[in-house]
Amino acid sequence: MNSLPELLVPVGDPDKLGTALRYGADAVYLGGEALSLRAKTDGFSFPEVEAAVREAHRHDAKVYFTLNLLAWEEHLDVVERYLEELGSCAVDGVIIADPGIVAMARKRIPHIPIHLSTQANTSNSASAMFWRDMGVRRVNVARELGAARIRAMAQKV
Question: Is-contact 95 63, C-beta < 8 A?
Answer without folding.
Answer: no
